[in-house]
Design a protein that fits this description.
By secondary structure, this protein is of the alpha+beta class. It is built from 6 helices and 14 strands. The protein has 3 domains: 39-56 and 232-353, Elongation Factor Tu (Ef-tu), domain 3 (Beta Barrel); 62-92 and 198-230, RNA polymerase II/Efflux pump adaptor protein, barrel-sandwich hybrid domain (OB fold (Dihydrolipoamide Acetyltransferase, E2P)), CATH 2.40.50.100; 94-195.
């Protein structure tokens, strides 16, 4: 006889199943809501593409003179390559060199004075003689009492005291002379540094972008002399959504592809097309076939000029902690290698953060 299920048991089983399905549905809904509210941070997994990134300078240094003076020579011109410590501008340093020579002469005199120990040797010798006189007087009194008066003994002792003080005085004078040598050495070093201040040298390797002075010009302290820039490495700047990206991007590799319109090869190819276009204007002595060949060659040259994209590589070095209150974007900087100077300030391109 088959067991029969009561209606109450069936309804309880059905209610339990329904409640379980309801809980699963609610859980799935909560997951979907959380996914929508807190989107996955793709910066840690997926590439980030910035279509309108711009090239900026990292090194843009304006050199200035620290002293006033007259320009004796300008050693560079705009566009020249410069190295660290390369002299850019020289000021008239004749007076500074004369002061340096005077300081050296004063140092030599101080050294001679410090090495002179004549006074010390004389004082020591005098002390020896006076001590021997006192000793002889004491011995004479021991052999013949009263042969040397007490007054004479006191005088000899006073002379010995004077000789001892003379030795101390001479030693002190030598110490002062040695201190004077140190002072003169410092004065010589200051004079030498003053000469160096008349030669304004580069502090970075790069190129001369601007030169603000010319030969014979008088300049004041702090006046700009030249502006130097360095194109390697160079900075690429762009913006990303600050709600999805943060400083975790720092250190990630990047690829920067320069816009083809900004590439020098594209400019040259366009110029070639324009030139060939002018040369292919029909004339009484030119035929249509030669014109077509010229146009085809120009088109091929243009395609070859821009076919190969310029791609530079580097790393993300900075992500701004400040979000734009309107767009919620943050600025990103990447430092890329630019050994061939293919990227120049102001160029734009696509920056891909891998």
């Amino acid at each position: 006889m088959c067991p029969s299920h009561s209606p109450d048991a069936s309804s309880r089983t059905s209610g339990f199943a329904n409640r379980r399905l309801d809980r699963i549905a609610v859980l799935a809904l909560l997951v979907m809501i959380a996914w929508a509210i807190f989107p996955k941070n793709s910066s840690a997994e997926e590439p980030v593409v910035i279509d309108q990134a711009q090239v900026l300078l990292i090194q843009n240094t304006t050199l200035a003179t620290s002293i006033p003076g007259r320009i004796r020579s300008v050693e560079i011109s705009e566009g020249d390559r410069v190295q660290v410590d390369q002299v850019i501008v020289r000021l008239d340093d004749r007076r500074a060199r004369a002061e340096y020579e005077a300081a050296q002469a004063s140092l030599r005199a101080a050294m001679i004075q410090a090495e002179n120990n004549v006074n010390t040797r004389y004082a020591e010798r005098t002390l020896e003689v006076r001590e021997r006189e006192l000793q002889q007087s004491d011995e004479a009194n021991q052999r013949y009492a009263g042969s040397v008066t007490a007054t004479e003994i006191d005088r000899l002792r006073l002379v010995i005291d004077q000789a001892e003080l003379s030795v101390e005085q001479s030693e002190q004078e030598r110490a002062v002379a040695e201190a004077a040598v140190a002072e003169k050495e410092a004065a010589c070093e200051l004079a030498r540094l003053r000469i160096q201040e008349h030669a304004i040298a580069s502090t970075i390797p790069g190129r001369a972008a601007e030169v603000f002075v010319q030969n014979g010009q008088w300049v004041e302290a702090g006046e700009p002399i030249a502006r130097l820039i360095s194109l390697d490495p160079i900075r690429v700047s762009g913006f990303v959504d600050g709600r999805h990206h943060d400083s975790s991007l720092v250190g990630r590799r990047v690829r920067f592809e320069i816009d083809r319109a900004d590439q020098p090869s594209a400019t040259k190819a366009n110029s070639s097309i324009a030139l060939r276009g002018r040369n292919s204007v029909p004339s009484d002595v030119a035929d249509d076939e030669s014109d077509d060949e010229s146009d085809d060659e120009a088109e091929d040259e243009f395609e070859q000029g821009v076919d190969e994209a310029v791609v530079l590589y580097g790393v993300v070095t900075f992500v701004s902690p400040e979000l734009n209150p309107v767009t919620s974007q943050v600025r990103v900087w990447a430092t890329v290698e630019n050994s061939r100077n293919q990227a120049r300030p102001g160029m734009r391109g696509k920056l891909t953060i891998d």
